Hints:
By secondary structure, this protein is of the alpha+beta class. It has helices spanning 3-30, 46-79, 99-128, 244-254, 265-278, 289-294, 363-371, 373-376, 394-404, and strands at residues 135-142, 145-151, 164-167, 169-173, 178-184, 189-192, 199-202, 208-212, 218-223, 236-242, 315-316, 321-322.
Amino acid sequence: MSRRSTGLRIFGVIVFAIVVTLFAALIYAAFQNDGKPLDTFVPKGPSSQEIQNLVLPVFAVAGVVFVGVMGAVLFITWKFRTTSEDDPEEFPEQIHGRTGLEIGWTILPALILAGVAVGTVATIINLNKKEPDAIQVQVAGQQWWWQYKYDLNGDGNFDGPEDITTATEMVVPAGRPIQVTTTSNDVIHSFWIPGLNGKKDAVPGIRSPLKLEADEPGVYRGQCTEYCGLSHANMRMLVRAVEPGEYDTWVTNQLKGHAADPTDAKALAGKTTFKALCAQCHVIKGVNDEKMKTATVPLTAGVAPDLTHLMTRGTFAGSILNLYDPVDPNDPSVTLPASDVAAAGDPGAALTGGTVDTSRVNRVSLEAWLRNPNAIKPNYAQGGRGMPNLGLTEAQIDELVAYLETLN
Ligand code: CUA
Protein backbone atom coordinates (compact mmCIF):
# COMPACT_ATOMS: atom_id res chain seq x y z
CA MET A 1 0.00 0.00 0.00
CA SER A 2 1.37 3.43 -0.90
CA ARG A 3 2.23 6.01 1.76
CA ARG A 4 -0.27 8.39 0.22
CA SER A 5 -3.22 6.06 0.67
CA THR A 6 -2.18 5.27 4.28
CA GLY A 7 -2.14 9.03 5.03
CA LEU A 8 -5.53 9.44 3.38
CA ARG A 9 -6.93 6.55 5.36
CA ILE A 10 -5.70 7.99 8.70
CA PHE A 11 -7.15 11.37 7.72
CA GLY A 12 -10.46 9.72 6.90
CA VAL A 13 -10.58 7.88 10.24
CA ILE A 14 -9.84 11.13 12.13
CA VAL A 15 -12.58 13.05 10.30
CA PHE A 16 -15.02 10.20 10.89
CA ALA A 17 -14.17 10.07 14.61
CA ILE A 18 -14.62 13.86 14.93
CA VAL A 19 -18.01 13.77 13.17
CA VAL A 20 -19.24 10.87 15.32
CA THR A 21 -18.02 12.58 18.52
CA LEU A 22 -19.69 15.89 17.63
CA PHE A 23 -22.91 14.10 16.75
CA ALA A 24 -22.90 12.15 20.02
CA ALA A 25 -22.16 15.35 21.98
CA LEU A 26 -25.07 17.09 20.24
CA ILE A 27 -27.50 14.28 21.11
CA TYR A 28 -26.20 14.19 24.69
CA ALA A 29 -26.51 17.99 25.11
CA ALA A 30 -30.05 17.92 23.71
CA PHE A 31 -31.13 15.56 26.46
CA GLN A 32 -29.52 17.45 29.34
CA ASN A 33 -32.10 18.85 31.72
CA ASP A 34 -30.04 21.56 33.33
CA GLY A 35 -33.05 23.56 34.43
CA LYS A 36 -33.44 25.49 31.17
CA PRO A 37 -37.03 26.78 31.24
CA LEU A 38 -37.89 25.96 27.61
CA ASP A 39 -36.70 22.35 27.70
CA THR A 40 -39.06 20.31 25.53
CA PHE A 41 -38.02 16.99 27.06
CA VAL A 42 -39.26 17.66 30.59
CA PRO A 43 -43.05 17.23 30.55
CA LYS A 44 -44.87 18.80 33.51
CA GLY A 45 -48.44 17.98 32.54
CA PRO A 46 -50.61 15.32 30.84
CA SER A 47 -50.50 16.91 27.36
CA SER A 48 -46.72 17.36 27.30
CA GLN A 49 -46.36 13.82 28.70
CA GLU A 50 -48.56 12.57 25.87
CA ILE A 51 -46.25 14.25 23.36
CA GLN A 52 -43.18 12.86 25.11
CA ASN A 53 -44.68 9.34 24.97
CA LEU A 54 -44.89 9.71 21.20
CA VAL A 55 -41.62 11.53 20.56
CA LEU A 56 -39.25 9.20 22.39
CA PRO A 57 -40.31 5.91 20.70
CA VAL A 58 -40.43 7.62 17.27
CA PHE A 59 -36.99 9.09 17.94
CA ALA A 60 -35.71 5.66 18.98
CA VAL A 61 -37.09 4.04 15.80
CA ALA A 62 -35.61 6.84 13.69
CA GLY A 63 -32.30 6.36 15.50
CA VAL A 64 -32.24 2.62 14.79
CA VAL A 65 -33.09 3.26 11.10
CA PHE A 66 -30.41 5.96 10.88
CA VAL A 67 -27.70 3.82 12.46
CA GLY A 68 -28.75 0.78 10.38
CA VAL A 69 -28.81 2.62 7.04
CA MET A 70 -25.65 4.63 7.70
CA GLY A 71 -23.88 1.53 9.03
CA ALA A 72 -24.84 -0.44 5.91
CA VAL A 73 -23.70 2.40 3.63
CA LEU A 74 -20.34 2.67 5.42
CA PHE A 75 -19.87 -1.12 5.50
CA ILE A 76 -20.66 -1.54 1.81
CA THR A 77 -18.44 1.42 0.89
CA TRP A 78 -15.59 -0.17 2.80
CA LYS A 79 -16.21 -3.76 1.69
CA PHE A 80 -16.43 -3.02 -2.01
CA ARG A 81 -13.86 -0.24 -2.20
CA THR A 82 -11.23 -0.30 -4.97
CA THR A 83 -7.95 -1.78 -3.83
CA SER A 84 -4.53 -1.70 -5.42
CA GLU A 85 -5.06 -5.31 -6.63
CA ASP A 86 -8.15 -4.31 -8.64
CA ASP A 87 -7.84 -3.87 -12.33
CA PRO A 88 -8.94 -0.25 -12.99
CA GLU A 89 -10.15 -1.31 -16.46
CA GLU A 90 -12.36 -4.10 -15.15
CA PHE A 91 -16.06 -3.41 -14.96
CA PRO A 92 -17.86 -4.80 -11.84
CA GLU A 93 -20.29 -7.66 -12.36
CA GLN A 94 -23.71 -6.25 -13.29
CA ILE A 95 -26.67 -7.74 -11.44
CA HIS A 96 -30.33 -6.82 -11.67
CA GLY A 97 -33.32 -7.72 -9.58
CA ARG A 98 -33.50 -9.41 -6.19
CA THR A 99 -37.27 -9.80 -5.64
CA GLY A 100 -37.09 -10.85 -1.99
CA LEU A 101 -34.92 -7.88 -1.02
CA GLU A 102 -37.00 -5.38 -2.97
CA ILE A 103 -40.26 -6.53 -1.43
CA GLY A 104 -38.56 -6.51 2.00
CA TRP A 105 -37.29 -2.95 1.79
CA THR A 106 -40.65 -1.74 0.55
CA ILE A 107 -42.71 -3.46 3.21
CA LEU A 108 -40.48 -2.80 6.22
CA PRO A 109 -40.48 1.06 5.92
CA ALA A 110 -44.22 0.99 5.19
CA LEU A 111 -44.82 -0.98 8.38
CA ILE A 112 -42.59 1.34 10.42
CA LEU A 113 -44.35 4.45 9.04
CA ALA A 114 -47.78 2.86 9.61
CA GLY A 115 -46.82 2.21 13.26
CA VAL A 116 -45.66 5.82 13.67
CA ALA A 117 -48.88 7.06 12.01
CA VAL A 118 -51.08 5.08 14.41
CA GLY A 119 -49.23 6.55 17.42
CA THR A 120 -49.31 10.07 15.96
CA VAL A 121 -53.03 10.06 15.15
CA ALA A 122 -53.88 8.59 18.57
CA THR A 123 -51.82 11.33 20.25
CA ILE A 124 -53.48 14.08 18.21
CA ILE A 125 -56.92 12.74 19.13
CA ASN A 126 -55.99 12.55 22.83
CA LEU A 127 -54.52 16.08 22.81
CA ASN A 128 -57.72 17.47 21.32
CA LYS A 129 -60.09 15.62 23.65
CA LYS A 130 -62.29 18.15 25.45
CA GLU A 131 -62.36 18.01 29.25
CA PRO A 132 -65.85 18.78 30.55
CA ASP A 133 -64.68 20.52 33.74
CA ALA A 134 -61.93 22.57 32.08
CA ILE A 135 -61.49 26.25 32.93
CA GLN A 136 -62.03 28.34 29.79
CA VAL A 137 -59.29 30.86 29.07
CA GLN A 138 -58.97 32.96 25.94
CA VAL A 139 -55.36 33.86 25.17
CA ALA A 140 -54.85 36.80 22.83
CA GLY A 141 -51.44 37.68 21.46
CA GLN A 142 -50.58 41.34 20.95
CA GLN A 143 -47.35 43.04 20.00
CA TRP A 144 -45.63 42.06 22.41
CA TRP A 145 -47.48 40.59 25.34
CA TRP A 146 -50.32 38.18 26.07
CA GLN A 147 -53.80 38.93 27.35
CA TYR A 148 -55.77 36.30 29.27
CA LYS A 149 -59.55 36.30 29.64
CA TYR A 150 -61.25 33.79 31.92
CA ASP A 151 -64.85 32.78 31.26
CA LEU A 152 -65.53 31.82 34.85
CA ASN A 153 -69.27 31.22 34.60
CA GLY A 154 -68.92 29.24 31.37
CA ASP A 155 -71.48 31.26 29.42
CA GLY A 156 -69.22 31.54 26.38
CA ASN A 157 -68.66 35.25 27.01
CA PHE A 158 -65.25 36.36 28.28
CA ASP A 159 -66.20 39.95 29.12
CA GLY A 160 -69.01 39.50 31.66
CA PRO A 161 -68.89 40.92 35.19
CA GLU A 162 -68.05 37.44 36.54
CA ASP A 163 -65.14 37.06 34.15
CA ILE A 164 -61.50 38.04 34.53
CA THR A 165 -59.23 39.97 32.19
CA THR A 166 -55.56 39.89 33.00
CA ALA A 167 -52.23 40.00 31.21
CA THR A 168 -48.68 38.67 31.11
CA GLU A 169 -49.28 35.72 33.44
CA MET A 170 -51.87 32.97 33.36
CA VAL A 171 -52.70 31.71 36.84
CA VAL A 172 -54.16 28.19 36.94
CA PRO A 173 -54.93 25.60 39.61
CA ALA A 174 -52.53 22.64 39.48
CA GLY A 175 -54.11 19.35 38.48
CA ARG A 176 -57.04 20.89 36.64
CA PRO A 177 -57.40 21.07 32.85
CA ILE A 178 -57.47 24.50 31.21
CA GLN A 179 -59.16 24.80 27.83
CA VAL A 180 -57.23 27.57 26.15
CA THR A 181 -58.45 29.30 23.01
CA THR A 182 -55.71 31.21 21.24
CA THR A 183 -56.31 34.23 19.05
CA SER A 184 -54.57 37.48 18.19
CA ASN A 185 -55.39 41.16 18.17
CA ASP A 186 -52.87 42.05 15.46
CA VAL A 187 -50.45 39.71 13.69
CA ILE A 188 -49.82 35.96 13.97
CA HIS A 189 -48.14 34.88 17.21
CA SER A 190 -47.63 31.41 18.61
CA PHE A 191 -48.39 30.34 22.15
CA TRP A 192 -45.96 27.80 23.58
CA ILE A 193 -45.45 26.55 27.13
CA PRO A 194 -43.13 23.59 26.44
CA GLY A 195 -43.57 22.10 29.91
CA LEU A 196 -47.35 21.87 29.44
CA ASN A 197 -48.08 21.31 25.73
CA GLY A 198 -46.88 21.97 22.21
CA LYS A 199 -47.25 25.17 20.20
CA LYS A 200 -50.47 26.73 18.99
CA ASP A 201 -50.57 29.64 16.60
CA ALA A 202 -52.50 32.72 17.71
CA VAL A 203 -54.09 34.00 14.52
CA PRO A 204 -56.27 37.13 14.19
CA GLY A 205 -59.93 36.22 13.62
CA ILE A 206 -59.36 32.53 14.33
CA ARG A 207 -59.88 30.71 17.62
CA SER A 208 -57.65 27.66 18.09
CA PRO A 209 -58.00 25.20 20.99
CA LEU A 210 -55.10 24.14 23.22
CA LYS A 211 -55.34 22.08 26.40
CA LEU A 212 -53.05 22.91 29.32
CA GLU A 213 -52.71 21.25 32.68
CA ALA A 214 -49.88 21.41 35.19
CA ASP A 215 -49.33 18.37 37.42
CA GLU A 216 -47.68 20.39 40.19
CA PRO A 217 -47.71 24.00 41.37
CA GLY A 218 -44.90 25.99 39.80
CA VAL A 219 -43.90 28.55 37.21
CA TYR A 220 -43.96 27.36 33.59
CA ARG A 221 -42.39 29.67 31.07
CA GLY A 222 -42.88 30.05 27.36
CA GLN A 223 -41.87 32.10 24.37
CA CYS A 224 -43.75 33.42 21.34
CA THR A 225 -42.62 31.17 18.50
CA GLU A 226 -44.01 32.95 15.44
CA TYR A 227 -42.02 35.94 14.25
CA CYS A 228 -44.27 38.91 15.02
CA GLY A 229 -42.17 42.03 14.68
CA LEU A 230 -39.45 43.96 16.41
CA SER A 231 -39.84 42.55 19.95
CA HIS A 232 -40.85 39.00 19.02
CA ALA A 233 -37.97 37.69 21.15
CA ASN A 234 -39.26 39.80 24.06
CA MET A 235 -42.71 38.24 23.95
CA ARG A 236 -42.55 35.71 26.76
CA MET A 237 -45.33 33.97 28.55
CA LEU A 238 -45.68 32.53 32.00
CA VAL A 239 -48.15 30.09 33.50
CA ARG A 240 -48.27 30.12 37.28
CA ALA A 241 -49.85 26.93 38.62
CA VAL A 242 -50.98 27.18 42.23
CA GLU A 243 -52.83 25.04 44.75
CA PRO A 244 -56.62 25.01 44.13
CA GLY A 245 -57.30 27.03 47.31
CA GLU A 246 -54.77 29.66 46.28
CA TYR A 247 -56.41 29.82 42.84
CA ASP A 248 -59.80 30.50 44.41
CA THR A 249 -58.28 33.32 46.47
CA TRP A 250 -56.66 34.69 43.31
CA VAL A 251 -60.00 34.61 41.44
CA THR A 252 -61.82 36.41 44.26
CA ASN A 253 -59.15 39.10 44.29
CA GLN A 254 -59.06 39.49 40.49
CA LEU A 255 -62.79 40.22 40.45
CA LYS A 256 -62.30 43.28 42.66
CA GLY A 257 -61.50 46.75 41.37
CA HIS A 258 -59.60 49.70 42.76
CA ALA A 259 -62.27 52.36 43.13
CA ALA A 260 -60.91 53.73 46.42
CA ASP A 261 -58.11 56.28 46.31
CA PRO A 262 -54.80 55.27 47.85
CA THR A 263 -54.18 56.85 51.26
CA ASP A 264 -50.52 57.60 50.59
CA ALA A 265 -50.08 61.11 49.11
CA LYS A 266 -47.38 60.03 46.70
CA ALA A 267 -49.49 57.12 45.41
CA LEU A 268 -52.47 59.45 45.07
CA ALA A 269 -50.38 61.80 42.93
CA GLY A 270 -49.38 58.75 40.90
CA LYS A 271 -53.03 57.90 40.33
CA THR A 272 -53.61 61.40 38.93
CA THR A 273 -50.67 60.90 36.57
CA PHE A 274 -52.03 57.49 35.59
CA LYS A 275 -55.41 58.98 34.71
CA ALA A 276 -53.81 61.79 32.74
CA LEU A 277 -51.17 59.86 30.81
CA CYS A 278 -51.55 56.07 31.06
CA ALA A 279 -55.33 55.59 31.14
CA GLN A 280 -55.62 56.04 27.39
CA CYS A 281 -54.18 52.53 26.85
CA HIS A 282 -54.12 50.73 30.23
CA VAL A 283 -57.22 49.78 32.17
CA ILE A 284 -57.54 49.66 35.95
CA LYS A 285 -60.87 48.27 37.03
CA GLY A 286 -62.73 50.77 39.18
CA VAL A 287 -60.66 53.66 37.79
CA ASN A 288 -61.19 53.91 34.04
CA ASP A 289 -62.85 50.69 32.89
CA GLU A 290 -66.37 52.12 32.73
CA LYS A 291 -65.12 55.21 30.96
CA MET A 292 -63.37 53.00 28.43
CA LYS A 293 -66.58 51.09 27.68
CA THR A 294 -68.69 54.19 27.08
CA ALA A 295 -66.03 56.40 25.50
CA THR A 296 -67.27 58.11 22.35
CA VAL A 297 -63.83 59.24 21.29
CA PRO A 298 -61.78 56.47 19.73
CA LEU A 299 -59.48 55.31 22.49
CA THR A 300 -56.76 52.75 22.12
CA ALA A 301 -57.84 50.99 25.31
CA GLY A 302 -57.15 47.31 25.40
CA VAL A 303 -53.95 47.56 23.40
CA ALA A 304 -52.00 47.58 26.65
CA PRO A 305 -52.07 45.18 29.59
CA ASP A 306 -54.82 45.50 32.19
CA LEU A 307 -53.04 46.79 35.29
CA THR A 308 -55.82 46.23 37.87
CA HIS A 309 -53.87 43.56 39.75
CA LEU A 310 -50.39 44.24 38.43
CA MET A 311 -48.64 43.49 41.72
CA THR A 312 -50.08 39.95 41.92
CA ARG A 313 -47.88 39.05 38.93
CA GLY A 314 -44.27 37.99 39.17
CA THR A 315 -43.23 39.63 35.93
CA PHE A 316 -44.12 42.59 33.71
CA ALA A 317 -43.35 44.06 30.27
CA GLY A 318 -44.41 40.87 28.50
CA SER A 319 -42.73 38.71 31.15
CA ILE A 320 -39.24 39.94 30.35
CA LEU A 321 -38.68 41.69 33.69
CA ASN A 322 -39.13 40.52 37.26
CA LEU A 323 -41.64 42.57 39.16
CA TYR A 324 -40.03 41.34 42.36
CA ASP A 325 -36.36 41.34 43.14
CA PRO A 326 -35.10 37.83 42.40
CA VAL A 327 -32.47 38.17 45.13
CA ASP A 328 -33.81 36.54 48.21
CA PRO A 329 -31.98 37.76 51.33
CA ASN A 330 -33.05 34.53 53.05
CA ASP A 331 -31.51 32.39 50.34
CA PRO A 332 -27.82 33.17 49.81
CA SER A 333 -27.62 30.60 47.01
CA VAL A 334 -29.55 33.00 44.77
CA THR A 335 -26.91 35.14 43.11
CA LEU A 336 -28.98 36.87 40.44
CA PRO A 337 -28.40 40.60 40.00
CA ALA A 338 -30.50 42.88 42.18
CA SER A 339 -31.88 44.49 39.05
CA ASP A 340 -32.59 42.61 35.88
CA VAL A 341 -32.48 45.78 33.79
CA ALA A 342 -28.77 45.20 33.41
CA ALA A 343 -29.59 41.78 32.03
CA ALA A 344 -32.32 43.10 29.72
CA GLY A 345 -30.19 42.18 26.73
CA ASP A 346 -30.83 38.61 27.79
CA PRO A 347 -33.79 38.95 30.13
CA GLY A 348 -34.12 35.20 30.46
CA ALA A 349 -30.80 35.15 32.29
CA ALA A 350 -32.32 36.88 35.27
CA LEU A 351 -35.99 36.08 34.87
CA THR A 352 -37.20 33.78 37.57
CA GLY A 353 -40.91 34.40 37.35
CA GLY A 354 -40.33 35.50 40.88
CA THR A 355 -42.16 34.80 44.03
CA VAL A 356 -44.54 37.59 44.84
CA ASP A 357 -43.05 39.21 47.91
CA THR A 358 -44.25 42.73 48.46
CA SER A 359 -41.15 43.58 50.49
CA ARG A 360 -38.97 43.04 47.42
CA VAL A 361 -40.61 45.15 44.69
CA ASN A 362 -38.14 45.51 41.84
CA ARG A 363 -38.29 49.32 41.75
CA VAL A 364 -35.13 49.58 39.67
CA SER A 365 -36.67 47.70 36.77
CA LEU A 366 -40.10 49.33 37.16
CA GLU A 367 -38.59 52.84 37.13
CA ALA A 368 -36.31 52.04 34.20
CA TRP A 369 -39.30 50.74 32.25
CA LEU A 370 -41.30 53.94 32.89
CA ARG A 371 -38.24 56.10 32.12
CA ASN A 372 -37.67 54.67 28.63
CA PRO A 373 -39.44 51.42 27.71
CA ASN A 374 -37.94 51.40 24.23
CA ALA A 375 -34.44 51.04 25.69
CA ILE A 376 -35.49 47.76 27.32
CA LYS A 377 -37.96 46.39 24.79
CA PRO A 378 -37.69 47.76 21.25
CA ASN A 379 -41.09 48.76 19.84
CA TYR A 380 -42.81 51.16 17.47
CA ALA A 381 -44.70 53.17 20.03
CA GLN A 382 -45.38 55.90 17.45
CA GLY A 383 -47.36 53.33 15.48
CA GLY A 384 -49.37 52.34 18.53
CA ARG A 385 -47.30 49.20 19.08
CA GLY A 386 -45.66 48.99 22.45
CA MET A 387 -45.17 51.30 25.37
CA PRO A 388 -44.26 54.88 24.48
CA ASN A 389 -41.67 57.01 26.22
CA LEU A 390 -43.94 59.55 27.92
CA GLY A 391 -41.06 61.78 28.98
CA LEU A 392 -41.98 61.39 32.63
CA THR A 393 -40.07 63.39 35.23
CA GLU A 394 -38.27 61.51 38.00
CA ALA A 395 -40.92 62.78 40.46
CA GLN A 396 -43.72 61.43 38.25
CA ILE A 397 -41.95 58.07 37.92
CA ASP A 398 -41.59 57.90 41.68
CA GLU A 399 -45.28 58.70 42.20
CA LEU A 400 -46.43 56.29 39.51
CA VAL A 401 -44.43 53.45 41.00
CA ALA A 402 -45.91 54.28 44.42
CA TYR A 403 -49.38 54.01 42.84
CA LEU A 404 -48.59 50.83 40.88
CA GLU A 405 -47.44 49.24 44.13
CA THR A 406 -50.97 49.60 45.47
CA LEU A 407 -52.44 47.56 42.58
CA ASN A 408 -52.47 44.23 44.34
CU1 CUA B 1 -45.52 37.29 19.19
CU2 CUA B 1 -43.60 36.47 18.09
